[in-house]
Predict the 3D structure of the following.
Amino acid sequence: MTLVAEKEAPAQRHSPHPLRAEVVRGFAPWAGAAVLLTFAVALAVNSARWQGGWAETRDELHVTSVMLGVPLALAAGCWHGGRERRRRTGELLTTAARGPLARLLASALPLVLWVVAGYAAAAGLALLATWYCATGDSPYLIALLTDAVVLAAATVAGQVVGRVMAWRLTAPLLAAGAYVVLAFPLYNDSRRGVRYLSPVVDGGADAVPVWWQPVTLMVWTGGLATAAVLAYAARRRWTALLPLAAATAAGALLVQTGDGLWHTSPLARRQVCDTSTTPQICVNARYEGLLPQVTDALSGLTDRLEGVRNLPVRYEDLPGEPARDEARLPIVTPIGWSVVRGRLTDPEQYAWEAGMMLIGRSWCDEPDPRLDPVDDAVEHYLAPKPVEKYFDELLAEGSEADRARLDAQLAARARLKAMGEEERRSWLSAYFATVDECDPSEVPTL
């Protein structure tokens, strides 16, 4: 008796969990790898436009997860859900001890796990890529959780579609149809409420959702997927009405609220300043790490303006128009142009743009050509444009009027440069007192 018991014990010791085979083998791990690879390629291709900005990283992950991840999750779920019909084992499985709901969940949950794991791995790599060159702000983790729930819901919904429709082309057609539907709000400026039902709609880099928006979106997408599962596989199919009612209420709230789902980030309404320069230099608090670089890029301009009167108090970088005693700081967004991976791409160009914020007379209906040599001389003295030499050569090779214009500009530049320090400060002070004037008689001459 003892020997028999010892022989039988090993057979009773290890009984693998029924989900283990689905988790470690088969289609689910490959689906997770496909999600990771898709995200990695899509994010790497556009890395210059999000790396270094937390809000930009959030938005890039969000758009990628909805526009690429959701169609892929639907297709993966649909293909996996239709395997019983493809293998012609549906009738055999109806005799199994587990009911339809248990069988569906046993098939869907491992796939959901791997799809979400692939997304989580890609999101983690993206956060790591931004962390080392971040210019301010902080990660938006709630957005990652929301996108993960949307991907899980899409995977489960795809499972149901795959079990209902056994056609082999259902999966790719479902993915293509989902992409078109999800992309519609991106290319349609309509403010109709129905567009806010799409997970892809957001408020932009400067916006954050109201506290209940992520929860409502998760209830909307998760409720629809849960209702589909219960309507298909539950013993009491009327229970599908409960998640459907929750999803309907959440969808109605999204539609009714519209643009009120987001508001400007409190951080985007603040700025950090260097008050040691003239004018002072302020950058938006979302990019406070750029302040030393911006200050260094504008150091030549601010040094030349030291002691000059009638200047704006500061360069400001807040939403909306600057105050009368302020000038707009050249924009650093969208990331990927002036700033790439936390670095200014062209400090000379940036300094010229900052100088033009002090000079420009673009509001004049017809700028008087007599003002051109004076404005050009001030522009050249403060921060010449990087392509100035190229334009000078074009004028030199142009018509007689072009050459005369170049001669006037060169003469004005030389006269401003030849002035003594005090004389130049006085002249610049008088000049900046008239930057709003379009009448040449009001502007000091050179």
Notes: The CA atoms of residues 83 and 89 lie 9 Å apart.
